[in-house]
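Holo model, zinc ion. Inputs:
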Amino acid sequence: MALIDCPECHHQVSDSAASCPNCGHPVAEPAVKTVVRPNKPEGTKSVLKFILIAIVALILFKACSDSGTGTKADTTAPVDVQYEIAKVIASNKMSGCGEFTWTANPGQSSEYTVKCSSDGTNWTTYTVWTKVDKIVPGVTP
Ligand SMILES: [Zn+2]
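Output:
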């Protein structure tokens, strides 16, 4: 490490310094230093860009998987129907409905044919509308 004269202001500058601390004139290996310096911010920029793209991709992926979860919820709908029918049975104080099976009536939304039993042997058929909380004995035509 030696001291050299700054070519601009003749201030004593360490030869390991990139530029003169007095006037800022580049003294040691200015060509290499100026090449290295602009490269660094560019590298940081491309890393930031990559992170940004990754975040956007993650958000899009999450949005997609959320709608996928929605589809999954549709496939678990029978469990909800079971619960909805049980609620209607309870609120209508149906007796002899210790257990029940149900089938969705085709073409009818939230209309189900429900077979109730208290002993697992004798089954009574009802038509249940979960949306309007209604039970009618028998099967509607
Ligand atoms: Zn200088």
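Residues 77-137 form one domain. The helical segments are 30-75, 77-91.
Archived with the compound record.
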